[in-house]
């Protein structure tokens, strides 16, 4: 018999059990990259995470004979619902053994949670911010997860979701880029060089972490505005932007972050992150002086790079900004002699960007799916 209980997030032991289940489930999986335990703990702490300034979330575990067999986070993102005029709940941190009864038990408890709030649909996995990664993986299980910028799950997850009546809502695709086959058409190169020569757009790089962090607010606001037409968009608060961007930039190498300026305003950005997955796997989600040193060394020796955060404000599309972004993307990959690159998690609805990337030689090799169901 399965028993589902709500986690008391004020109780450290209960929080630890919820977190540890994920690590136990994927122990020994070579493709899985453990998240930072401190990040998951922050998601579960209403005093720390800015999401709770406006929205609600609760956490549940399913147990059989005293052993956890599934877990889930049930969420009501109120600004998202207000912006899109919906009554959706979302779920995140969903993990289960290969057992439909266990998965159904914890999901049914989430359904009850949503119905009690007058919500009519469930959608997910979607996290506490756009940097948490989207979806259940449905393709590319043989490839290692790109750091903690996406989720990894066993191949039985999508089957269980479909068996329980969930349907596809949207996909997020990740593309593999082989540098010597990543070719910019001549017209793209000419367009990029022309706008740079005219001074229409200026590419700014950063000399160090202090300068980069001084731009964090402006970068965050441009990041939020760039995706205003995307399916997953909702207006983030200033505190959410700061929390997400500061977290991302703290582990970034400044030389891989570029922004595009127009009249001294940030209108575009390119975030590139050397792949530190191997170091993250060695330290099991723990942050300490040894793991920090290892992560910094891995940044220098890795031959993979993630391009996760490529965008330009909608009003500047078609004015040479996109060409400049692709030009700088290729320059980043080539100048630092990476052997492999990944464009990480593009929404399926971003049709033009996907077409552009495929034209440039990028190949889809991982797909994550957002599932939904009426309650």
From TrEMBL:
Top-level taxon of origin: Bacteria
Q: Which InterPro entries match?
A: Acyl_CoA_acyltransferase, BcerS-like
For this protein, the record's PANTHER family field holds: PROTEIN YGHO
Kindly provide the name given to this protein in its UniProt entry.
Answer: N-acetyltransferase domain-containing protein
